[in-house]
Each structure stands twice: as C-alpha cells, then as structure tokens.
C-alpha cells in the first residue's frame, strides 16, 4: 500500500469517527429536557421551579445562569440582542437566585431547580425579564478505544438551552399592533413579512396565525407560530407559489394571547389583533 493511499484511508477513518461520535453525543444531549418552557414571577409569586430530566445513558453536568436579551429583527434577520441601555431598566438577571446552580444529573434521573426573585423596591409598573441558560455537558464523553497506529476520535459537545423568565408588577399590561404587512415574490416563492410593535409596558407573549386565501375564500396557506414581542419584530413566512393560479389573494392573520406550552393564567391577555392585505400573484 502506498503512503498516499494509507493517508487517504486514515483521513476517511477520522471522518467516520468524527461523524459517528457526533451522532452519539448529539443523541445523548437530545435526552436532556426542560419543563416548563418559560418562567413567570409577579409581586405575589416570587418563586418558581424547573424540572431538568436526563433521559440519556450518560451523566450530565448542568450549569444554569441568567443573562439579559430578547428577540428582535435587524436588517431582516431574526436575532437575540442584548441592549445594555434597556437592560438597565428591564433586566431581572441580577434579581434571580438559583438553587442549585450547578449539579450533576445521572441517567434517567431528574432534578428540580428552584428560583427566587428579589426585585428592588419602588419598581415602575410593567414587565421585566431575562433569559435562563441551561448548559449541559457529559461527565464522561464517548471515547473510542484504539490500538497503536489506529485512528480514534473524541468529541465533547456542550449544549445550551435557553428559556425566558418574566417578572410582572401589579399594573403590568401588554399590547401589540401590526405596523406593516409586506409581500415579495422571487421565482416560485413568496415572502410574507409581518412587522409588529409592543404597545404596553410588558412584553407580549402569545401566538401569530397567518393565512393566504384565494378569491373563493379557500385557504391556500396557513401557519401558526409562537410569538413574542418585546420591542418590535418582523416575522417572515415563505409560501410555495408553484401550484397557485395567477389572481387576487388575501393575506390575513390574527395575534392572540394563547400558547400551547404556557398556561393561560401566565399570559397577559389582549383582545385578538387582526390584519389583512390584498395581493396579486402573477
């Protein structure tokens, strides 16, 4: 066997080991689950808890921290931003105490993590928030046992899962308005952009439904998604136009205070907000 051929075999072996190890570790981390998906505190209830479950076959080191941030849109891209100016008046990251903050969870076990909020006195009415980051790291990452002159690989994959934590004062209220609905077309794909602004003193948390119907009123596209508006945000929806006949269509939708993963009691309620736009597809 030539040196070049031997090198190629080693490269292929390394690639295989990396892919295989990545698959093993990814499957292991996928078993770390968190419930609930958001935390809510107020002036009457300053305590909360998370349940972290390890459904995999490896022990996991868990580290929990808080940081300020919120979703918004910049240059058409959805992202999480940390506005240091807004953080000074809206962040609860320094108020939240976590017990325990670092621990190891064994396979097929679960751990309850408790949270206590200690807000300052004389808060202005409204909503305050932070992001809770749950970092998981395997205690004993998979190791390929190899003999001399053989190829092995080891990957240590750290996974971060993030949920929102909200604190609301007694007079917290939320609202949302649709500032624009835009439609663009490129080849056989249409792009719907719904831009929204938060109008209350607390973030809006709920759902957004978008529909496209033809002249007969038949729905040709529909999408319902979770929707959080902290300041302003643009949500994008792509629609396949290849099977649609040319003609007049209507984009419509509704924003509601409903989430499948969050109790109604934890959501600040609003009257449903509807929107509509007529478009032409040629």
UniProtKB/TrEMBL annotation:
The keyword rRNA-binding does not apply. Residues 1-30 form the signal peptide. Keywords: Signal. It comes from the Bacteria. This is Pili assembly chaperone N-terminal domain-containing protein. The lineage of its organism: Bacteria, Pseudomonadati, Balneolota, Balneolia, Balneolales.
């Amino acid at each position: 066997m030539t040196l070049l051929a031997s090198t190629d075999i080693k490269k292929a072996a390394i690639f295989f080991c990396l892919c295989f190890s990545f698959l093993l570790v990814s499957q292991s981390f996928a078993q770390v689950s968190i419930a609930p998906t958001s935390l809510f505190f107020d002036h009457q209830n300053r305590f909360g808890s998370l349940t972290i479950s390890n459904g995999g076959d490896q022990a996991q080191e868990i580290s929990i921290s808080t940081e300020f941030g919120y979703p918004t849109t910049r240059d058409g891209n959805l992202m999480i931003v940390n506005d240091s100016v807004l953080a000074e008046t809206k962040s609860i990251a320094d108020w939240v105490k976590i017990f325990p903050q670092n621990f190891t969870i064994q396979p097929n076990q679960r751990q309850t993590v408790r949270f206590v909020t200690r807000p300052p006195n004389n808060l202005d009415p409204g909503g305050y928030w932070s992001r809770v980051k749950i970092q998981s790291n395997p205690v004993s990452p998979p190791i390929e046992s190899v003999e001399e002159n053989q190829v092995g690989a080891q990957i240590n994959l750290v996974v971060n899962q993030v949920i929102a934590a909200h604190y609301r004062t007694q007079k917290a209220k939320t609202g949302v308005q649709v500032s624009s609905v835009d439609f663009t077309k490129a080849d056989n794909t249409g792009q719907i952009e719904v831009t929204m602004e938060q109008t209350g003193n607390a973030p809006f948390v709920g759902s957004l439904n978008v529909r496209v119907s033809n002249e007969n009123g038949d729905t040709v596209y529909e999408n319902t998604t979770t929707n959080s508006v902290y300041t302003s945000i643009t949500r994008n929806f792509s629609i396949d136009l290849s099977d649609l006949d040319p003609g007049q269509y209507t984009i419509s939708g509704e924003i509601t205070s409903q989430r499948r993963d969050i109790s109604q009691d934890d959501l600040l309620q609003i009257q449903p907000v509807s929107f509509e736009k007529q478009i032409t597809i040629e």
